Amino acid sequence: MALTSAVANAAAAAAAAGAGKKAAQVQLQAELNTDDEWNKFINRDGLLVIDVYTEWCGPCIGMVGNLKKIKVELGGDNLHLAIAKSDTIECLKRFRKRSEPTWMFIAAGQLLNVVFGADAPRLARTIEQELQNEELARKGERERPKRAPHELTPPEQEVAEAKEKLQQERRAREEAAVEAARIMRRETRACRLETHFADVCPALVMPHAQKHLRKITDALEPHGVILADKCPILLGKDGVRVLGVEELELATEAAISAIAERPSLALLLKKTPEKDGDVIELCRRALYGDGVKTGDGEPNKKVPAEELRAESTPGVYVPADRHQRAAVLDLLFPKQMVSSLVEPGPPPTAPHIALMFGAWQRRALLAVCDTSRLLHYGFFADASLTEPKLLAKNIEQYELRPEKDFSETIVLMIAVGLAAPELADPKDIPPQGPPEQLLALGPLHVSEDAVVGAEECAKFFPPGYSEPEPKPKQKPKKKKKFSLQTKRHETKEDLTEESNAQSQSIETGEPGESEAAVEGDNDGDAEVEGDVEGEGEVEEDGEDGEEQQAVDKATSPPPPAPH
């Protein structure tokens, strides 16, 4: 009896020990999903090793066994393990876009180290080293670094600075490309207008200075410039913004408020035929005193531009060069003169990049894409960036394709800025980089920057891509002309042949050709009907199978590669 009781007690103790060991394994790695759980965990004593993950990537499962072994063999109660979801913890937001395993080492609420990658030997060495450092810190022989968990470690800081430098270089390239395109547009427009307006210069008299128009014309006449035309104009905020780009003095708040809501006076100044020199230089010399030298002892005379100034708002504006002249002519005289003589150039294209996805994602892409930033899109045979093969220019054309394949792609041309940001309202400027909602769908390719994107999009969407395709002209059917004599002759011959055939059949007793043809046609119709019915069933089954396969390829991701 005593022996039986002892065995029972031993079994119970063994069971309790097993249960306790299993419970310890369950609690070996904490799971942190909220800010409260995070703040509570990082205040624990000892060394904390936290596996930081994102919802779309998940924690590093392959390292769990190694970590448990290290805890049992080295750490004991001084080592605590956890997994933390960066998507729901504010302190970990800098790790939300990372896909590689991330390990944070924390002690006494301070960030000691961060290790990236699933390198088991390196992780084990780091844990062992940090355990030793923590033991020394407890004894007062070593000082812990003063760094909050949300702050960057020195290696992280180096990586962040390198990324920022790369981003600055990309932005510099993009800005240089935008500026080069702007200068080219201005030069092209100026060259076109010079053909018709070489001896003409526009000017603008502000609302407060219109009563001094006589003073302006009197100053221009000695320099061989006359007033050819004038008209009142209300520029509004958009027009003032265009002027502000050309003349900084007109971009101030005082100038905008003075010009935007009150009509100004647009002048068209013209050089007389007998006068030599550039009309822009002549106007600037007369109104601004450009290039006029005063002798020693002579008092400086006030030029009209200074006399007409009201505090910080100029009274008159004259373009300073041929580029400004073209822009101001477009603004002040768009219909009366410019559009009637010079065809406007193509609208500028915003800086853009190319994003490539599987064609099976087309509906989700077009549903979430901002149409104001979608410049073009198209469907292509594969993921080639050098020699794209166009399949369809829009989703309607693509849906009409009877067969679709997993290799087919859709390419989006997405604007990442504005062609003329200086003319736009700051609130209308889109954020830099590709849209987050598109990146969340997992693109196959994204252009490095807008400069590379322009080169890539030029291959996918060449000039004239958006123009409608010309429909092939149907050739008119030629009608055969038969004369009445020819028709009578053919009818007579047919009747003669038919009568001869009937008489021959009566003599031989065989059915005539027409009767045999009718019987043969009936037999043939029966056979054809049977064949059609049989073939129809086979084709129907085949079409169902092909249609089901096409639907799968058209709306489903490609199957995983065999292992």
Automatic annotation (TrEMBL):
Top-level taxon in the UniProt lineage: Eukaryota
Compositionally biased region (Acidic residues): 510-549
Region spans: Disordered: 134-160, 461-563
Domain DUF4746 as annotated: residue spans: 127-467
Biased segments, Basic residues type: 473-482
Chain ranges passing through the membrane: none
Family matches, as InterPro entries: DUF4746, Thioredoxin-like_sf, TXND_domain-containing
Segments of skewed composition (Basic and acidic residues): 135-150
Biased composition (Polar residues): 498-507
Protein's name in the database: Thioredoxin domain-containing protein 6-like isoform X1
Organism the protein comes from: Bombyx mandarina
Gene that encodes the chain: LOC114249468
